[in-house]
Automatic annotation (TrEMBL):
<dbReference type="InterPro" id="IPR015421">
    <property type="entry name" value="PyrdxlP-dep_Trfase_major"/>
</dbReference>
<dbReference type="Pfam" id="PF03711">
    <property type="entry name" value="OKR_DC_1_C"/>
</dbReference>
<feature type="domain" description="Orn/Lys/Arg decarboxylase C-terminal">
    <location>
        <begin position="411"/>
        <end position="471"/>
    </location>
</feature>
<keyword id="KW-0456">Lyase</keyword>
<feature type="domain" description="Orn/Lys/Arg decarboxylases family 1 pyridoxal-P attachment site">
    <location>
        <begin position="3"/>
        <end position="351"/>
    </location>
</feature>
<keyword id="KW-0663">Pyridoxal phosphate</keyword>
<dbReference type="InterPro" id="IPR000310">
    <property type="entry name" value="Orn/Lys/Arg_deCO2ase_major_dom"/>
</dbReference>
<comment type="similarity">
    <text>Belongs to the Orn/Lys/Arg decarboxylase class-I family.</text>
</comment>
<dbReference type="InterPro" id="IPR052357">
    <property type="entry name" value="Orn_Lys_Arg_decarboxylase-I"/>
</dbReference>
<dbReference type="InterPro" id="IPR015424">
    <property type="entry name" value="PyrdxlP-dep_Trfase"/>
</dbReference>
<keyword id="KW-0210">Decarboxylase</keyword>
<dbReference type="InterPro" id="IPR036633">
    <property type="entry name" value="Prn/Lys/Arg_de-COase_C_sf"/>
</dbReference>
<protein>
    <recommendedName>
        <fullName>Amino acid decarboxylase</fullName>
    </recommendedName>
</protein>
<dbReference type="Pfam" id="PF01276">
    <property type="entry name" value="OKR_DC_1"/>
</dbReference>
<dbReference type="GO" id="GO:0016831">
    <property type="term" value="F:carboxy-lyase activity"/>
</dbReference>
<dbReference type="InterPro" id="IPR008286">
    <property type="entry name" value="Prn/Lys/Arg_de-COase_C"/>
</dbReference>
Amino acid sequence: MAEHHLQRTASFHVPGHKSGQGLYGGAESFFAGVLAIDYTEITGLDDLHRPSGAIKEAQSLAAECFGAEETLFLIGGSTVGNLALITAICGPGDILIVQRNVHKSVLHGLMLAGARAVFVSPRCDEQSGLVTGVRTEDIDQALQRYPEAKGVLLTNPNYYGMGIDLTPIAKLAHAHGKPLLIDEAHGAHFGFHPDLPSSALKCGADAVVQSTHKMLTAMTMGAMLHLQGDIVDRDTVKQRLAMLQSSSPSYPIMASLDLARREAAVNGPSRIEAALPDIARLRERIGELECYDVAARRPETTAYETFDPFKLTIADRTGMLNGFMLQEELEQRGCFAEMADTEHVLLVLSLVSTSQDYERLYEALADIAISRNLRNNAEERLRRIGSNNRDNRVWASGLSGSVSEPVLFTMTIGQGQVETVSLEEAEGWISAEMVIPYPPGIPLLYPGERITDACIAELLRLAKFGARFQGPADKSLRYLRVYVDRPAD
């Protein structure tokens, strides 16, 4: 791309901005540099869908860097990778074993394939209330119950950097002749330092989707799909990607993937080595403020085995600020977080975060503590921790490890005649709405899922203990919307 740019050629091809000549209204200063290399499939620049030159070489270098046998560039984020994998291994009516708390792209992939999901509920960390990963024995139960399943799809790590050792699950899936597919959107940096978790590929996964733009340095929407072994048919995956990705892929995004790969390979280990002590000190200093809880790997936890130090999850231990309020306070001080939930704020660090960034965050949190008078009350903190642990044990005891019946996903989900029935009388009907209890934020019912007696009992139990519910039209959960024309068999 750089060589072509230096040739100063005349463009008689798309795109219409002609290397940035069509910029007006002050946009030049923002876009001129990128649009100057915003090319298309012209001679010398290769073709993503039939790579034979520079793109092929870049993908080969990426495979070597990340430990794959073959790597494919994605210009539609991890979303398109998940869609391609699911539609490559599943057809109408096929079963896929899926972690219940997955990204919406997995659900969309199931819809495109017309596949059925067998959901396995993950564990819940008692102290934080955050949902983590599944247990090997629960995946084993699902595989024993549904030997016809086409594979297992898990998310690891979760948004907050908590994960599991995938090695035993990979061995289990392979013993059953099934591929292990991993949505590793938040783990592209794993494996580049001994103090970081192992990558899913290293643990034996067959296909891994990574958002190179999230934790490494590619442009937004830049991602990679890594493949190894022969269980997943690579030609089918490539055919699905040709269908799902644009026929006019972004060359700046692809170039940024190549540059991100090079940065990770050449400087990744040293950058991580330099960053880890600074991050540890930042965590320590925030903890010394005494009014914040900072999530970290704890030896006593059984809900997750691995933890990403580049994810900083903070909660106000005094109870004065919920996660959304704390996020707003940080934004007022120029620190913009990745996301917030009812309890926490998630801040994402990276290999190129600076000591100035860390200091600005610390000063913002210290100023919030003073201006909002967040005084640490030991008695109140112990009461809240005890209450949270009790509540999280209640929610986890009913949710963790459960294996659902197959749930059919089609493009017609959300359509059809519905009616409202009381929760106590909903057994045997097919749910027409999603029901998500908070905490811990795991969908307990998906549209299209059969409402069982056990599910009703669990919803009643959660309501009794004060859970809040997102999704249902009736927030009190006395009634559920069900499909009239889709009764259970």
